[in-house]
Amino acid sequence: MIAIVAAITSQSLKSAQNLEEGRLAIEGRLLAIEPFDDLEVRRFVVRDSNIDIASGAVLPLIMSLNELCTNAVKYGALSNATGRVHITSAVDEPAHLLKLKWTERGGPLVQELTRRGFGTNLIKRLADQLNGSVRLRYEPEGIEYELDVPLATLQAREAKIVDR
């Protein structure tokens, strides 16, 4: 966890123009995001699977979702009053995979990135830590993120974290 916090701090400060901008970037990535879902306006639609996940695999999953949420707040479906995020997880028993999908809809028009930024690199590194594969698509109607993780990695007593 300390290595991830150090990486977030280092990468955020590299692209900052000054210390205040760096502080705000780090704070935005590390602090919990305010709740966006309430009973009157459902901003999140979640369909999940009942699966046990080992403690060592939880952090990379949470960090990935946090990064997606941070970006949705800044630029995507959670940056306006009408956007929604659909999160689904399903177990593919024949392939022995957990399939996690994050889909944004109703936010501003999305354009393909011209360069990979810190968040994209972080998401890919976190998937690598889980021996998983990740796909990010920048569809005009919203970002689509898909993560496939071997069940053996998620259910190992202590998920092995690969340092890259």
Task: Briefly characterize the structure.
The protein is 38% helix and 23% strand. The chain has 2 domains: 1-31; 36-155, Heat Shock Protein 90 (2-Layer Sandwich). α3 (55-74) links the parallel β1 (44-47) and β2 (84-92).
Would you kindly provide a written description of the structure presented here, covering whatever features stand out?
- With about 160 residues, the chain is an alpha+beta fold.
- The chain folds into 2 domains: about 1-30; about 35-155, Heat Shock Protein 90, CATH 3.30.565.10.
- Helices cover about 40% and strands about 25% of the residues.
- It is built from 5 helices and 5 strands.
- It has helices at about 1-15, 20-30, 55-75, 120-130, 150-155, and strands at about 45, 85-90, 95-105, 135-140, 140-150.
- The protein has a 5-stranded mixed sheet with strand order 1-2-3-5-4.
- Helix 3 (about 55-75) packs antiparallel against helix 4 (about 120-130).
Which terms summarize this structure?
Heat Shock Protein 90; disordered C terminus; 2 domains; five-stranded mixed beta sheet; 164 residues; alpha+beta
